[in-house]
Design brief:
CATH topology of chain A: Glutaredoxin
Radius of gyration of chain B: 12 Å
Oligomer: heterodimer
Structural class of chain B: alpha+beta
Largest sheet of chain B: 2 strands, antiparallel
Order of helices and strands of chain B: EHEEH
Number of domains of chain B: 1
Structural class of chain A: alpha+beta
Order of helices and strands of chain A: HEHEHEEHHE
CATH architecture of chain A: 3-Layer(aba) Sandwich
Shape of chain B: globular
Helix content of chain B: 25-40%
Strand order of the largest sheet of chain A: 2-1-3-4
Number of domains of chain A: 1
Radius of gyration of chain A: 15 Å
Largest interface: A-B, 43 and 39 residues
Largest sheet of chain A: 4 strands, mixed
Strand order of the largest sheet of chain B: 2-3
CATH superfamily of chain A: Glutaredoxin
Helix content of chain A: 25-40%
Strand content of chain B: 25-35%
Distance between the termini of chain B: 16 Å
Amino acid sequence: MPILSASDASRVREMLAGLPNPVRLVFFTQTLNCETCEPAKQILGELAELSGQLTVEEHNFLLESDLAASYGIDRVPAIAVVGAQDHGIRFLGIPSGYEFMSLLDAIQVVSAGDSGLNEGSRALLASLEAPLALQVFVTPT
Amino acid sequence: MAVESGKVTSFIVEASEYPDLVRKYQVSGVPKTMVNERVEILGARPEEDFVRTAVGAAE
């Protein structure tokens, strides 16, 4: 049974219709001791069905630990949202509720290669010389 | 922000799945953003304010 309702799927399909460039969802998962890995996999599968520009690339977190580390991922389920470039955008945990909306937003931004930020913000970020690691905590509701 | 600078990485964390991170960063409400694991930004803030605070914390 699908997680996304028919009406949600239809809305998401519309939102993703204009994606200009391909986006890979690099998904790290494991089979044991991860309650949310399987539903996360199902959501990503359903999502990828809704746009020809989206692909899901599944990796086993335990067997491919070096690859996970190269993406800065140390827990599962985790998703790296990668376009023409890897901008370092990651999602930890099942992408449902608010996190699902954030994932859609990230897919659109990465596909377009355009943050949508105003000129002042862009200039400030362009001047950054030190690493800036953001961790944004959200909940599904 | 991560699209605008190669210096920026952004992790969106589903708080209820990772109690260890919630404890570590004392997350009592969402959204809460940690910058370089040190500086916290609480709630949803206007773009200009958020970017200035985050960039300021990194330097």
